[in-house]
Amino acid sequence: MRFKKTAVSVAILSVIASLAFNAYEYAESPASQLFGPTLVSGPANRHVVALTFDDGPNPPYTDAILSVLEKEHVRATFFLVGRAVQAYPATARREADDGDALGNHTWDHAHLLVMNAAQITRSLERTNAAIERAAGTSTALFRPPFGARDWLVLAQARRLGFTPVMWSVPLAQDWENPPPRVIAQRILRYVRNGSIIVLHDGNEGMLCAREEPALCNRSSDVDATSIIVETLKRRGYTFMTIPELLALRN
Hints:
By secondary structure, this protein is an alpha/beta fold. It folds into two domains: 1-30; 35-249, Alpha-Beta Barrel (TIM Barrel), CATH 3.20.20. It is built from nine helices and seven strands. The chain has helices spanning 2-28, 61-72, 82-87, 89-97, 117-135, 151-159, 180-188, 219-234, 242-249; strands at 48-56, 77-80, 101-104, 141-142, 163-164, 195-200, 238-240. The strands form two sheets. Strands 1, 2, 3, 6 and 7 form a five-stranded parallel β-sheet that branches. Strands 4-5 form a two-stranded parallel ribbon. It is globular and about 50 Å long. The protein starts with a helix and ends with a helix.
């Protein structure tokens, strides 16, 4: 009898754990609006896409991506980690000079769900200050690390005047450094009108060029960017920055 009770208890706990995990996955999915409004995509009736990059700047890979974008006459949006901006201000300045949009990806890519209001505010304000010093421009765009947010995170972001930006194309897991064509294929199969695409030009804002270069090797993303841009151009898409996408929506 005791064994049966234990088995039933384990089964119930397993079901509860499964439901809790599924609820968390739903709440934190990029499209979820449970915690408040976020930008997930552009208008579905316009043949436009927004290409975004997270976790930089990260020389020389961010610079190589910028060279691809310059060659293709495409502008993107870079969500910057504050400590990396402080370390590599010239790359952030180049992004701004190219007409790319800049966004806030927090100071050190820490998980915001474990922070209090003051810590969240400090991380965002410190990052914006670094962006302003490096690039001579401010930003009102914010993307939470890991896409993790709750009511507190979004409330603090909105209080500071930020528009939270998520994405509509599933992540290509490019941080695992698959071949460029694999990254591109994982992206291209899901692109639709108004899609927001995410690639990574760094590794959580780590300063790998100074310590462990292999940890931040984004050469696959450089080549994947070329493939994605060339393919979507052939499909007739127009590339927009996130501010341009917002203006189009409005």
